Amino acid sequence: MELIWDQTYECMEREEIQQLQLERLQATLNRAYKNVTCYRNKFNELGIVPEDIQSLSDLTRLPFTTKEDLRLNYPYGMFAVPLREVVRIHSSSGTTGKPTVVGYTKHDLKTWSGLVARFMTAAGVTHDDVVQIAFGYGLFTGAFGLHYGSETIGASVIPMSSGNTEKQIMIMQDYKSTALVCTPTYAITLADKMERMGIDPKNLSLKVGLFGGEPWSESMRKEIETRLCLSATDNYGLSEVIGPGVAGECSCKCGMHIFEDAFIPEIIDPETCQVLPPGSVGELVLTTLTKEALPMIRYRTRDITSLDYSKCDCGRTMVRMKKTMGRSDDMLIIKGVNVFPSQIEEVLFAIEGCEPHYQLVVDRIGAMDELEVRIEVTENIFFDEMKKQRAFLEMVEKKIASMLGVGATVKLVEPNSIPRQEGKASRVIDKRKI
User: Fold this and answer.
1) From CA 299, how far away is CA 317, in angstroms rounded?
2) Which has the closest alpha carbon to 83: 101, 105, 108?
3) What does the pLDDT look like over 62-96, one tens digit per residue?
4) Torsion angle of C-alpha atoms 400, 403, 406, 410, degrees rounded to 10
5) Which SS3 state, helix, strand or coil, does residue 403 take?
6) Angle between helices 218-228 and 184-197 (to 10 degrees)
7) SS3 373
């Protein structure tokens, strides 16, 4: 039988979920309007007061919140409580300017721990497990979210932090770690290192991996599961909304359950900002329902996904989001075609001889965009005779063109020549001056 951490909420009927969402939404709007100048100004500009929101369908009348709003109100301008009530401060790294700052009250931390406990339980973690956390501890929310979620369940936690790969493996061997927490790309790095050290992962105690922090494909899941001999599960979260704990996979691995008692999800067209019907692919927008310190109203995550409201065999009734395809603001547009790195990853993982490490280099030659895909290949292919190597290149280029609808030049590089990251992988180098 599927283990469920909080059956009361995770298995609510749809009508009950919606009623609870409306009640919590109204309370959140009142808190934000009263205490956050940014929201009060946004509402006043639209001529809206919280009392105008009488149904969930009225949500579309509310303004969006973006990362820019957090930057403009740096550091504490978006907080809805006095700083003396904030017991934890995290921040997320920004691509430009200063980081976005997020805060938690005591109640927020309790809520956060419970939400993480839900998806960890869904993945198969119990109080008997030993959880090795290989996320970096610091202002990043990932490590702390999984740490306190594990302790809430009653599992033993090894706060290993990121890096020092050989020591990570030694700890796995000696401490009998049963659950691994890290990014999927670092899981591959661990598998590579074990292989070079002559360590058989079957001799480890690992049974489950909880991987997040970056988009990854089903092919990468199979690669990790095969090479580390564990069940690889996906989870989703972002610092601005709460950190990890927004959604996570159950044993069915057919989408990540969004905890709708704490968040209202929407899918919008990232260009028009119009809400799309269920099942459509678009940008995920989230509204928090339980956060005290930092309520987020219609926050544009920039993550591209879709929602599935059909019944899941695990017994949970909450909507599932598919793996993120990428980000609307990280999306590459090449010769008018939208390209996500995860699409290319799917192609490469299906080709024998390709290693699970690649890099996309985009440049503009004259007026034309050019995409180069650098892929690591096994030594026998890299050092093969030119005729066979050319045939391999053409085959890969043909498969990529078929998937993307746009051509790419493939460059084969030696094993271990693409830089490894212990955090999120740096997949794209965009040299264009756009």
Assistant:
1) 23
2) 105
3) 999 999 999 899 999 999 999 999 999 998 754 44
4) -10
5) helix
6) 30
7) strand
